[in-house]
Specification:
Structural class: mainly alpha
Distance between the termini: 63 Å
Low-confidence stretches: none
Oligomer: single chain
Number of helices: 3
Helix content: 40-55%
Strand content: under 5%
Mean pLDDT: 80
Shape: extended
Largest sheet: none
Length: 111
């Protein structure tokens, strides 16, 4: 008879930094969290440029939407012959996702 393996769970509720700047305009710069669940989009070597792009060009969703729209135009004008089955699947999946996005946008506009 084998012994049961104990289940070990590790969790940390303490912040990574045990110091805090109380100036409200610096909260974002040190990774402060205001919600129970927060999403980190990763590190960037130039957060100042990243923020300017978001402010002046558009959100990540808007940028991706425009890239998707432009890519769909190209797909409609390029001959897609001699693709492997995997490549055809990749194109079909992308077209399906772009169609889903269009449907969601149309539904939101009707509201």
């Amino acid at each position: 008879m084998t012994k049961p393996v104990p289940l070990t769970v590790q969790a940390s509720l303490a912040p990574q930094n045990l110091w805090q700047d109380i100036l409200p305009w610096t909260f974002n710069q040190q990774g402060m969290q205001f919600g129970l669940f927060n999403i980190s989009l990763g590190q960037t070597p130039r957060p100042d440029i990243e923020q300017k792009v978001l402010d002046e060009v558009g959100s990540y969703g808007r940028q991706l939407g425009r890239i998707g729209d432009a890519l769909e135009v190209l797909l409609n004008h390029v001959k897609l012959e001699n693709l492997t089955p995997a490549e055809e699947d990749a194109i079909d999946i992308l077209r399906g996702q772009l169609a889903q996005v269009r449907r969601i946008k149309r539904r939101a506009e009707r509201r």
